[in-house]
């Protein structure tokens, strides 16, 4: 996968060695766990692709855009292969069968708001030209540079031939593991080098603090 204006020290997601070895959601979980500082949720900028080189083809970075909704900011080549097209910028729900998207939405709310580690066990029924597939997807919460939990590191591993695309999965099982974390940190003035992603069409601003909210004041006039 090619990214325009990418810093020289950022590894492209499609540049990893191919093969089944290393494509393990457990390895992604261990990497994420190792990035936690004092038990807190890691920042997106802490993620270095060189630390998950063997997983890059299956890796993703997702951004929360609304409660229960997330879009792909970065996606490995395997995810594009499953859809038969470039998936960067698409909603994560594009990989899920329509009848199962409510379950994904509920899981994404837990992921970002609790926060929690989400593991989805997936299945795609076989049909003409498309063999049956099984897959696992892990989603691990990340903080943005503003300190809010609005990003996710993920890994999607499938078994079976892809066949005709796009492939969409039914959710067989959802596992939710709450994460013990500290309160959101204050915004940083300088981001750290790490798993950089391309510019998005828009960015959400920081939440309005209570002291910044407009208010009305009653003025009494006794004249």
TrEMBL record:
It comes from the Bacteria. Pfam families: PAS_5. Residues 185-209 are annotated as: Disordered. This is PAS domain-containing protein. It comes from Roseovarius faecimaris.
């Amino acid at each position: 996968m090619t990214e325009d204006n990418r810093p020289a020290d950022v590894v492209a997601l499609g540049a990893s060695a191919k093969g089944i070895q290393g494509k393990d959601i457990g390895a992604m979980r261990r990497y994420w766990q190792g990035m936690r500082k004092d038990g807190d949720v890691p920042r997106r900028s802490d993620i270095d692709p060189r630390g998950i080189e063997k997983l890059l083809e299956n890796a993703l970075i997702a951004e929360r855009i609304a409660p229960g909704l997330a879009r792909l900011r970065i996606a490995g080549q395997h995810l594009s292969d499953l859809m038969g097209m470039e998936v960067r910028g698409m909603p994560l729900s594009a990989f899920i069968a329509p009848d199962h998207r409510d379950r994904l939405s509920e899981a994404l709310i837990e992921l970002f708001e609790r926060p929690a580690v989400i593991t989805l066990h997936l299945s795609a029924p076989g049909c003409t030209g498309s063999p049956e597939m099984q897959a696992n997807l892990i989603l691990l919460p990340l903080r943005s540079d503003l300190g809010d939990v609005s990003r996710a590191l993920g890994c999607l591993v499938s078994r079976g031939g892809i066949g005709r695309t796009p492939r969409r999965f039914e959710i067989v099982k959802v596992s939710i593991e709450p994460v013990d974390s500290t309160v959101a940190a204050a915004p940083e003035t300088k981001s750290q080098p790490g798993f950089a992603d391309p510019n998005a069409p828009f960015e959400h601003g920081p939440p309005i603090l209570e002291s910044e909210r407009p208010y009305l004041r009653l003025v009494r006039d006794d004249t």
